[in-house]
Amino acid sequence: MALPIAVQVYSVRDDAAADLRATLEKIKKLGYDGVEFAGLYGNDPAEIKKMCAEIGLTPISAHVPYRDMVADPEGVLSQYATIGCKFVAVPYLVEEDRPGNGNFDQVIKNIKSLAAIAKGMGMTMLYHNHDFEFMKLDGKYALDILYEEVPADLLQTELDTCWVNVGGEVPAQYIRKYAGRCPVVHLKDFFGEKSEDMYELIGIEKKAPKRPGNFEFRPVGSGLQNFPEILTAAEESGAAWVVVEQDKPSMGLTPMESIEKSINYLKSIGY
């Protein structure tokens, strides 16, 4: 059975910053069922809840900076509880917090405590991976260690299928590995090979372009990913939502045109 489709608002972040309500209305018109936030764009959480209800979008989740949550757990997380998010995700780790850099054990402990606070507010914490969690520590991927150390009743997966692939694993197989623990799956397509400036393309790290592999993010269905296989794995592994995400547009498309192309592809294969 086809799963409901949301879009990560970060994909159209400039539109959202200019006019969040108009952007949400466009997202709904394209055929999306829900949204995952990455910032409030200066809007009050209660107002965002009202916008989503009036427009007919489910605010399923939010990407919330890890260090912001650590600095003020109750204050930050309560905003997303107000919006009505069922999930809240750790979206990214700065370099010093990543596996192999000394802080990762503390990161795991902090995620465990943050997840408990989120649970108390009626939300489930997710972890959204990139490729750096596929570093091996004592023979195991750091990502797997995180999920071993923090129990499933506190932390669920939000597997980003692009980064799973870039990290060296087959996305559909990795989703199945976490069957029953993968309520939200990120659909992200790409073309080219791993390069040194991939995180510049996310819009976080600013590095001079070094792209021998011509790596770029693409609309779903326009790159190298096997989405029929990924979607079947998500359905059979108990996912509740799939989320389209494209960090940077390509192929001469605007961000809004990119997410339109993505959902049109998904509709073309029966979604």
Topology:
Elements: E1 5-8, H1 13-18, H2 20-30, E2 34-37, H3 45-55, E3 58-62, H4 66-71, H5 73-83, E4 87-90, H6 104-120, E5 124-128, E6 136-137, E7 140-141, H7 142-149, E8 155-158, H8 161-166, H9 171-177, E9 184-187, E10 189-191, H10 198-202, E11 216-218, H11 227-236, E12 241-244, H12 255-268
Parallel strand pairs: 1-2, 1-12, 2-3, 4-5, 5-8, 9-12
Antiparallel strand pairs: 6-7, 10-11
Helix pairs in contact: 2-3, 3-5, 9-11
The CATH homologous superfamily is termed Divalent-metal-dependent TIM barrel enzymes
Q: Give the neighbour order of strands across the main sheet.
A: 3-2-1-12-9
CATH topological fold name: TIM Barrel
The radius of gyration over CA amounts to: 17 Å
Characterize the quaternary organization of these chains.
single chain
The biggest sheet, with number of strands, parallel, antiparallel or mixed sense and barrel status, is: 5 strands, parallel
Order of helices and strands: EHHEHEHHEHEEEHEHHEEHEHEH
Mean pLDDT, rounded to whole units? 94
The CATH class is identified as: Alpha Beta
Compute the number of structural domains. Answer: 1
Q: Which structural class should the secondary elements be placed in?
A: alpha/beta
User: What's the overall geometry?
Assistant: globular
CATH architecture: Alpha-Beta Barrel
Low-confidence stretches: none
SS element count, helices: 12
Percent strand equals: 15-25%
